[in-house]
Amino acid sequence: MFNKKLTKTVLAVVIIAVMLSFMSSFMLTANEPWVPYNYDWWLETYPVQSGYVVDRVITSNELKLSVPLKSPKDVFIYEDAKGEVSVYIVDTDNHRIIITDLEFDKVRELSTFTYGEDYRVENFVPTPSSVGAGIKYDDIEAYWDEVAKIGTKTTLRNPSGIYVQDYHGETRIYIADNNNDRVLACDKDGNIWMEYKRPGSEVFDPNASFRPTKVLADNAGNVYVCLTTIAKGALMFNEEGDFRGFYGANKLEETSTAVLHAFLRLFMSREFMQNLRGNSAVEFSGLTIDSDQFIYTVTASRSVGTDIVKKINPSGQNVYEKEGKSDWTWGAWIQPYVYGRTFMSTLVDITVDDKGDLFLLDSTSGQVFQYDQDGYLIFTFGGKGEQKGLFTAPTSVEDYDSKIYVLDSTKNSLTIFKPSEFGELVIEAMGLFNRGRYTESLKPWSEVLKRDANFYMAYVGMGNAKLSTGDFNEALDYFHMHSYFGYNLAFKDLRVNYMRDNFDRMLLIVIIAIVIFAGAHIAIKIIRKRKG
Known about the structure:
This protein is α+β, with helices and mostly antiparallel strands.
């Protein structure tokens, strides 16, 4: 006979434990002002545990700036050959570059630049020796004007992008100096060694302005420049500063804005078109490069659905197009419809971490979307609002050492996200699998499912791990309703494996069937002959 008092006590303890478990699970996500979600098999959203939490928010006060940040547009994190890490912030409306360390204690600004002794003048104007080749006197005069710059100083005008690289042990800084119609290349002290300006090539539209927004450089010294007026891809310059053509053009139809610009060029002056700042929605809004020299681009388009995100190999081919991902929906699958307007994702920047994961910044929702190498959505975090971790006008995203840095040009702040405990578990599991340690990834993936049974990436990870170890039946179970591609691959391997293991038996059955069929055929012929 049960003790009623003891039974009630045990039941009360169980109920309290369950309530505490739900409360602790709620507290894990309630601390963040956004609702983390993912998409299921039917592309419907469902809540998941947060993969990132706010680590720190950097403002002008933390940087101890006498002149506060004003509409910063870009952030870049650079580690030099000595292992020293610097954070570069493009303070656009103050016409300067803020340089600080990872702790944001040591801060200096770069606002005045000097044309050094190594300044190259021959990359965009003719040399005096080319007079006999039909060069106009104005070009020769322009050449000597460039020579006269050596030793003088210059300043920025509304810079909008920056890239820093280590080139043979030297720090090279490339600045998209928007209103000065140039890309400034200098060392860490601001000594200019080259300017990339409007190409004189016939393939470059003479009516198009040269207003660089983003800049990038690869290990070979090639420089890639994004313009607001060019929809043919990024402008590519070689190490000597020669214009080499357009790189990675989107296969997109022209939008109404692009058509309007083409119409206005028939009547308006070049100066007017230079001051017209509207985007044509088919040019690159952001780009980055990984350790294997693949260049990733995003297009902030609301009217097209192709080549929104691209992965371009060194030969200029879009890898995602070959993989069938050129028309994928990146960002939000479900578009909110409010007051007669559809709020589609506007991807303004991209970064790729050392594991190959993509982080896309959506200025419409204020969210950061994290994808793995295969294009699976892992986490979403951030959003629109005034709270810590939310944004008003996010413009740039950067990663370093598993942390994500997001710049807001209206809040004039830099928000740093770090992986949560749950996020670290997912990152560990994915890292093991990507390094080929499939069996070791099973344990962290199992722990992920214990903490969040809705996290579909764990099912995909478990399915991939089981697939790699030959457990095809279990792989099918994990892939079911979670990965169409994985399920087909597991079923194919299971079928091939079954055929291989049962080939002798199947061959025997076929032989017996043939013998039976042949015997029956002979018997029928004999019977018919006797009757005839």
